[in-house]
Amino acid sequence: MTLVATPIGNLGDLSPRALETLRGADAVLCEDTRVTGALLARHGAAVPMLPLHDHNEDDQTPRLLARLRAGERLALVSDAGTPLVSDPGFRLVRAAVAEGLSVGAVPGPNAAVMALTLSGLPPQPFLFLGFLPPRGGPRAAALAGVRAAERAGLSATLVFYEAPHRLAETLSALAEAFGGQRPAAVARELTKRFEEVRRGTLSELAAHYGAEAARGEVVVVVGPAPEEATGEAELDARLREALAAGMSVRDAAAAVAEATELPRRQVYGRALELGRGGAAQD
Ligand code: SAM
């Protein structure tokens, strides 16, 4: 079986080897036969297609493994980009690998890597997180998990896929989780006519897309946690100093969150604890 990457917008990005592999396949496994059918037709390739998507992958896998065992050449594509990356195919590949069947790939376009390389943010290490949960609560919980990993030492550029209609709220959630001053980039419509990479802090990007809804496909890239002392001792010292100077808990938290680029919620929670402790001691 061969995993074949296809264009993410610019049809000129289908490689000669990708085309050759698709032409020579006994069948092309694809998410949507209309999308892949159009790609094949454009290149005059008449190859049988079989739908493979999240809802039928488990059912189809035993049948497909039997075909691979029988020596058939199956190519796997997704609607766009590299198959398996936030797209179907992983369960089939895992099963084929477990059986010792041959699995190869024709590499090519991938929106996450292209966005990463254009973001101006450190390219490695990077952590690809795909789509965040669409609902606010689970999304905040997922981001809190990443932030906890950062506090435990993770320092990586983060890459997310997102739907355009959720971009503004996701950027706000990212600013809440990682601090509004964190550098980031939004890569939109990659390889297409209106390709754009907008770079700025999470606050700036959230404000921009809050005022002007994004159109097309987007990737969000977030820079790694700043190296400055995010340690708890440093946070406490700064908060104690601000509280001792007579600032309210709210103002102290806002000032320290701004200075340390730590999430407001985290700093406010700690400021409340310290404020309470201080009051008890008085
Ligand atoms: N397998 C694909 C790949 O290799 O990039 C990703 C498929 S995933 C279902 C679709 C998401 O990828 C989109 O919602 C968007 O976040 C991102 N994406 C795909 N094409 C893109 C493009 N041309 N410009 C920006 N983002 C894109």
TrEMBL record:
Its EC number is 2.1.1.198. Pfam families: RsmI_C (PF23016), TP_methylase (PF00590). GO terms for molecular function: rRNA (cytosine-2'-O-)-methyltransferase activity. It is found in: Cytoplasm. Residues 2-206 form the Tetrapyrrole methylase domain. It is an enzyme of class 2 (transferase). It catalyses: cytidine(1402) in 16S rRNA + S-adenosyl-L-methionine = 2'-O-methylcytidine(1402) in 16S rRNA + S-adenosyl-L-homocysteine + H(+). Catalyzes the 2'-O-methylation of the ribose of cytidine 1402 (C1402) in 16S rRNA. This is Ribosomal RNA small subunit methyltransferase I. It comes from uncultured Acetobacteraceae bacterium. The lineage of its organism: Bacteria, Pseudomonadati, Pseudomonadota, Alphaproteobacteria, Acetobacterales.
